[in-house]
TrEMBL record:
It comes from the Eukaryota. It is found in: Cell junction, Tight junction; Cell membrane. Belongs to the claudin family. Pfam families: PMP22_Claudin. Keywords: Cell junction, Cell membrane, Membrane, Tight junction, Transmembrane, Transmembrane helix. This is Claudin. Coiled coil: none annotated. It comes from Poecilia latipinna.
């Protein structure tokens, strides 16, 4: 069984990964594009996330609109939503199980169950990190493939958004 300091370090890295996964899931900046009209007054930036689409106008107005229908969403967006929610749920369950198995807690102190509990918590954090990694990597691939698609109009091409870049950070924490 690992020392208490190593268990605490792993647990807090898992919690940091969980917080990053929550932020990544909620941010509407998974795909972004900028439209520049004939003058600066018509500049608009569009962002798409898992839950909403947003537009930022050069006049300072920031508008967001939630997606109206779950069934009308593309399958890749539905899968990304599901995987990120599963990643968050896995992190919550992993943290609960890991807390029960850590040496610094009083749950089942003289039991042989503590070691498998903390190991299960670590595996849960690992699964959460892998679910997040699959989602942000998949989105990165989709954005890059669409960007270099010669048949797609230039106004419909998106770039990788901030949330995808941020999504790689919790992966490194959860898979430590």
């Amino acid at each position: 069984m690992a020392s208490m300091a190593v268990q605490l370090l792993g647990f807090f890295l898992g919690l940091l990964g969980f917080a990053g996964t929550i932020v990544t899931t909620l941010l509407p900046h998974w795909r972004s594009t900028a439209y520049m009209g004939s003058n600066i007054m018509t500049a608009t930036a569009y962002m798409k996330g898992l839950w909403m689409e947003c537009a930022w106008h050069s006049t300072g107005i920031y508008q967001c609109e939630l997606y109206r229908s779950l069934l009308a969403l593309p399958p890749d967006l539905q899968a990304a939503r599901a995987l990120m929610v599963l990643s968050c749920i896995s992190s919550v369950l992993a943290s609960l199980v890991a807390v029960m198995g850590m040496k610094c807690t009083h749950f089942a102190q003289r039991s042989v169950v503590k070691s498998p509990l903390v190991l299960s918590g670590g595996v849960g954090f690992l699964c959460a990190g892998l679910l997040c990694l699959v989602t942000v990597s998949w989105t990165t691939n989709d954005v890059i493939m669409d960007f270099y698609d010669p048949f797609l109009l230039s106004g419909m091409k998106y770039e990788i958004g901030l949330a995808v870049y941020l999504g790689y950070i919790p992966v490194s924490f959860c898979t430590e």
